[in-house]
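Subgroup meeting minutes
Present: P.N., E.W., G.H.
Scribe: E.W.

1. P.N. recapped why we're keeping a running log of single-chain structure predictions: easier to compare across weeks, and new members can see raw inputs and outputs side by side.
2. G.H. added today's entry (142 aa).
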Amino acid sequence: MPSTETFRTPKHRRHVPAARQRVRAALAGWGVTDELADSVTLLVSELVTNAVLHCRLSCAQVRVTLILDGPELVLEVSDPDRDRLPQPHHSTPDEEGGRGLALVAALSDAWGWRQEPYTKCVWARFRLAESAEESRAVPAGA
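Output recorded in log:
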């Protein structure tokens, strides 16, 4: 059965660090550490920041969901601006922003988005390393 962590955060930049900390704690509780935890934590920061900056609805909340299902970890970030879909941007070296989705593409095994009835969801999938899978395996005779 998959393990899930879901929470909501207000659509404001000051709440991005709390989202990062909450994801980091969930990952640590599941035994996901090292480079994968760093990548997922960075991407939750990028995706929540994108939702905060680009969602046109005031007083909105951003939903963050982590799903650990066997050898796969899924990060989902949803906001209620369902018709404003993510668009990758090719930033020049002088631009300060616009690299978030490029980071998502580079650090995840797959990513995309979907429109739901009242929200849009941007997701990223990660394959777990063999050692992480083995550490969660139930020992024989247990």
